[in-house]
Amino acid sequence: MGNIVVSNVSKAYKRYPNKWARMLEWITGRHQHKKAWVLRDINFTIEPGEAVGIVGINGAGKSTLLKIITGTTQPTTGSVRVDGRVAALLELGMGFHADFTGRQNAYMTGQLLGYSVHEIDVLMPRIEAFADIGDYIDQPLRMYSSGMQVRLAFAVSTATRPDVLIVDEALSVGDAAFQRKCFRRIQEYKEAGTTLLFVSHDTETVKKICDRAIFVNGGIISKIGKARSVCDAYERLLFGVAVNTNESKNEIVPIYDATLVSKSVEVQYGSRGAEITNVSILDAEGAVTNIIPEGHPISVNYDVGFNESADCVNFGMMVKSVDGVCVYATNANANIQNSKKSFQSGESARVRFSLQGNLVPGTYYLNVGVTKEGLEKEEMLHRRVDVLIFRVVSAHPYSSNGFANLFGNVEVKKK
Prior knowledge:
22% of the residues lie in helices and 37% in strands. The chain has 415 residues and is α+β, with helices and mostly antiparallel strands.
C-alpha cells in the first residue's frame, strides 16, 4: 500500500478565441478551440514509504499533476495508479463551505475522506487539539483567517495515518509554530511507512524531508533523482547560471531576485532623529544581490542622515531566520578600532559591515538600526526591521543544517 505509478500522463485544456466559440463548437460540432498543454508525457513511480518532493516555478504544472494523482482532474492521456488511502492537502480550504462551522466542515470533509460519522466522533478531540483554534471550531468558516483554515484542513486530513499523504503549498500559509507542528506529524507518518508527495518552493525543506525530488519545468520532467541534486538544478534556474570554474566543479553566480520583496513585512520605529536609507547587500564585486552562495563574502550597506545632533552614535545590523530567531547581530562599536562618533544635524554617514556568508541555505531577514547614548540608556533613532529578504543557496557538495556553516574539514582514520 502507498505505491504511486504515473504512466505517460499528459493534460491539455481547451482554449477558445472568444466567448462565442464554445457555443459555436457545440452547435456545429466543428472544433473552435486550440489545445493548451500543461503537462506532457509524465512518467514516474513512487515506492511505498518513499518521500518525494516536486519543485518548479509557478505555472510549471505541479498543481495540475497533483490534482490528477488525487483524481480531482482527469488526464487527457495516460493513467495514474495509487494504492491505499490518500490524504491530500491541496488548495487552501478546498471542499470547505464558508457558511458551515469548523466542526461541520470537519464532519463533511471526514466523510469525503471515507470516515463514518462514528469514526469522526472518535477522531474529533484529536482534530480539535491539533488544529488548536479554540472556540472558533464552532464558528462559521467565513470568520476564519487563512491560517486557521489550513490548521483545520491539515488536522482533518491527517487525523489518522494515511497510506499516501499529498501536500501542496498550503502549509506556507500557516504560522511558523504550526508549520513546525505539521512537519513533525509528516515526519512521524513518514517513519511509520506513509508515502509522501510534497510540493514546495522551499527547496531546503524538500532536501530535509524528501528522499527524491522531481523538477517539473514547462509541463515536462526536467530532472528526477536525489533531492539535493534536483533542488540544486531548480535553484540554478531560479537564481543564476552555472559557470565552469574548473573541469569538475560548477559554481552559482549570485544574482538579484526581484520576487524577494520585504515591503509587506517591514516595520520601522524610533525617534527619527536619524533616517536610514539605501539599505543594500553587495557581493564581493560590489553588485547588489539577495541570492548568496553559501560561504561567499558579502557586505551590508546603508546610509544614515541625521535630522538632529547626536553624540556617541552606534550603528547596528541583525540577521534573523524566517521564524524570527536571531542568527547574527553586531554593531559598529563592537569593533574596538571604532570610536563612538558624534554627528551634527544635516550630516550623514555611510555604514558598511563586511561579512563572510557562513550561513546554511535558507531564507533570512535583515534588520538595521542606529542609536545614540541617552542619560540612562541608548535611544533608538531609527530601526528598520525586516528591511531586506535574502536567500542563501547551496554551493557545497556536503549537506548542512541549522544556521551557521562551521564546516572546515572532516578526517576519518581507522584506529
